[in-house]
From TrEMBL:
GO molecular function: dolichyldiphosphatase activity
Domain Phosphatidic acid phosphatase type 2/haloperoxidase, chain residue ranges per copy: 34-155
Protein name as catalogued: Dolichyldiphosphatase
Gene Ontology CC, one term: endoplasmic reticulum membrane
Pfam families recorded: PAP2 (PF01569)
Function: Required for efficient N-glycosylation. Necessary for maintaining optimal levels of dolichol-linked oligosaccharides. Hydrolyzes dolichyl pyrophosphate at a very high rate and dolichyl monophosphate at a much lower rate. Does not act on phosphatidate.
Keywords: Endoplasmic reticulum, Hydrolase, Membrane, Transmembrane, Transmembrane helix
Homology family: Belongs to the dolichyldiphosphatase family.
Transmembrane regions: 7-28, 81-97, 109-128, 140-158
Length: 213
């Protein structure tokens, strides 16, 4: 009968939905930065597992959750995951993507709205872990701090080390075989794909109209 608890339990599944979304996006887009982002999330999870097994701080109520995969709770993996995802996405939105048209106000508006949604999701998932007795406030707090630091470090690593290598990686035979591409030099991939797709659709429509005549 605890509606809030049920809602927060569903929200705590956020990391699973994000992973499924990433896998789907990689299958259909096959873009190197997206693959790097997922690699950062996986590395972040590995660091979380390592810290947990070094600190070995128990969860606040182990007997209430006998199905958890590990008895250690410091730091919260959900909190660390969500804050890594949110902070990295925030950095990507404001430092990686650049608008190429004149809609400056709308560009900033959707970035601000999306950033607020990302932070809200991270806060709600973090709170759910305390409410559902999976973690203490300190475990959630340190998870958020660890995830944020990892996100900043991975973003810097991707921008400074990996991005210059992306053109070479995209030229590898195996990359060409799996249609893996590099879009790092395109300021706003959403705007680019929109304009290219629209132009190609109009071009094909003109050709089709010519044939029908």
């Amino acid at each position: 009968g605890d509606f809030s608890g049920q809602l927060l339990a569903y929200l705590s599944l956020g990391p699973i939905f994000i992973i499924v979304g990433f896998i789907t996006l990689i299958i259909f887009k096959r873009e190197l930065h997206t693959i790097s982002f997922l690699g950062g999330l996986a590395f972040n999870e590995g660091v979380n597992w390592l810290i947990k097994n070094v600190i070995r701080e128990p969860r606040p109520c182990e007997e209430a959750h006998s199905t958890v995969t590990t008895k250690y709770g410091m730091p919260s993996s959900h909190s660390q995951f969500m804050w890594f995802f949110s902070v990295y996405s925030f950095l990507f939105l404001y430092l990686r993507m650049h608008q190429t048209n004149n809609a400056r106000f709308l560009d900033l508006l959707w970035r601000h709205v999306l950033s607020v949604c990302l932070v809200t999701a991270a806060l709600l998932v973090s709170y759910s872990r305390v409410y559902l007795l999976y973690h203490t406030w300190s475990q959630v707090l340190y998870g958020g701090v660890a995830g944020s630091i990892m996100a900043i470090a991975w973003f810097a690593f991707t921008q400074e080390i990996l991005t210059p290598l992306f053109p070479r990686i995209a030229a590898w035979p195996i990359s060409e075989f799996f249609l893996i591409r590099d879009t790092s030099l395109i300021p706003n991939i959403l705007w680019f794909e929109y304009t290219v797709t629209r132009a190609e659709a109009r071009n094909r429509q003109r050709k089709l109209g010519t044939k029908l005549q």
